[in-house]
What does this fold into?
Amino acid sequence: MEDKVRIGVYICHCGANIADTVDIQQVVDFAKGLDSVVVAREYKFMCSDPGQNMIKEDIKQLGLNRAVVASCSPLMHEPTFRRAVQEAGINPYLFEMANIREHCSWVTEDHEKATEKAKRLVSAAVKRVYYHQPLEIREIPVNPNTLIVGGGIAGIQAALEIADSEHKVYLVERDPSIGGHMIQFDKTFPTLDCSACILTPKMTAVGAHPYIELMTYSEVEEISGFIGNFKARIRKKARFVDESKCTSCGVCQEKCPWKADSEFDLGLSKRKAIYTPFAQAVPNIPVIDKEYCAYFLKGTCRACEKFCEVGAIDFEQVDQVIEVDIGNIIITTGYDAFDPTPITQYGYGRFDNVVTGLEFERICNAVGPTSGKIVLKDSSEPKSIAIIHCVGSRDENYHEYCSRVCCMYALKYSHLIKERTDAEVYQMYIDMRCFGKGYEEFYKRLSEEGVTFIRGKVAEVTDRAINEDEKGKLIVCGEDTLLGTTMRVPVDMVILCIALEARSDAKEVAKLFSISQGADGFFIERHPKLDPVATMTDGIFVAGCCQGPKDIPDTVAQASAAATRVLALISKGKVEMEAATAVIDEEKCSGCQICNLLCPYSAISFIEDKEVSRVNEALCKGCGTCAAACPSGAITHKHFTTEEIMAEIEGVLA
Ligand SMILES: Cc1cc2nc3c(=O)[nH]c(=O)nc-3n(C[C@H](O)[C@H](O)[C@H](O)COP(=O)(O)OP(=O)(O)OC[C@H]3O[C@@H](n4cnc5c(N)ncnc54)[C@H](O)[C@@H]3O)c2cc1C
It folds into this structure.
């Protein structure tokens, strides 16, 4: 141990958050009596400038060489206080925090017990800080290239913002074209802009941008490294069409005799075995779907090859695996639309004219399966349409959350139906949630367009008529909670406003990028209010609906925020690395390699000739997994040494 240890202890009131439950003065008096404590003080808000200045002054005036702050969770303010002690001249790792708010005042109303626990937590922190050693914070350069995963509106927006600042972006999209869900829509609420008209200029800009390397029909297979220095392995699936030769003339698609359901039109139309998903696709290069191509199935046909004048068809093409170095990653993988088949009472899949919201988007679209005509399966025009809200959302059996966009897209449909048909429209809702800018006004406008609003949860859609009016119709049954009566509404078509849910492969994506999912499956941000685009893995950001259901304006805002965070790191050019890393004592290491297997950051490698494991400190995030698992006790986790942990336990028990 260096010079005599001199500790200052600072107890925070956190306004009334702590002081209303914990007797602050008692804790201060208690701290004053602890070994090596030179001074103990209290203050209303220790994180405020006067609070921090008090600590800094004491360090200078009283020659303190350790500090303890007893306040809130270190997650919020540990960096604040570490910075403060550093500014006063002591190493930031010679500081310890005791959480007497979340762990103490917020979990009990019993003043006596809260005060007692606060004393023990302070005693533990004081005992532990005694053994802290100064650690060196290292800086490493940030690679200015960025990887964006998912080419919906979120990925497109983020890519353009970064690339416009002349920094390279790799945009990886798993489908043959970028565009995501937004390119499937006809109009977008609340302004009713044509979706393609506002999106395709951005898509084209991405395709032509000198700073964006677009990889469609591709997926990330492996990520290694750490903030500023990631490596990604990307699989670019074979399109069987040479992108450098294809002129997008479309002849191959015309001549191809083989058909499959169009994924873009949700199975409401057919596409060819060689296809471009939609007219404005970026890149506008077709792919051959091996599942339906006669050449791949039976070794016959090759019509596309025969008719391609530039010789772009290449049946021998294989997947390419590309490795790229990047400094930051933005995940923008979006959402899946809820499949309402399990809600059997709504008849989806049983009745031809029960469709989902997303299918209705395609029906309304001028280049969709019905050329934009709102028609029934038999091509006749509907005389009445029911729009059922909250299908799969706000429902304990499926998703408890509100999907945030359904009320609004339901209103959008009312408008489109009224504009194009003479049909009666019934909106069947639980409550109308029109929270965004211009949304309430949109609702008001629609209320004046002759739409009938019925409040209540629909129980069933049936074809069992009980009178002449209902014959040949779909009857929507339920309760009208405003009138307090049951209802039976005969209609020709039913639109189900389906929930937005986490992608079916969100778990694998979360694992691949070492990020977390919430109980609802969406990716979790670092802090719901104060850090909404960062994740718990430094250098990896989330934006758009992969983080939770949201509309396009919020998606774009979040994507811009993520791009800004990345640009800030690029412009700083360097990041600080965790100093509290693990070290392996090679004398004690038995070479069992358990730590190699457990390390979630791939930071430990095995040195073959010495038969020992070694930590790469640049990769180590100080999670402690290896130290806890090492059967030989060969691993020390700096800042969490056995001595420090034992002292802390002693402090609690004292
Ligand atoms: C029926 C319906 C109507 C709507 N209408 C409107 C409206 O009018 N106005 C409005 O503001 N909002 C509307 N929304 C909401 C809107 O769809 C979303 O806000 C928006 O699409 C979110 O964009 P995104 O980029 O986050 O996700 P997405 O649009 O889902 O895009 C994600 C992209 O990532 C790709 N991807 C996924 N996983 C991977 C992977 N592992 N690797 C590579 N790529 C991957 C996908 O292929 C996709 O291209 C509507 C939603 C629904 C369901």
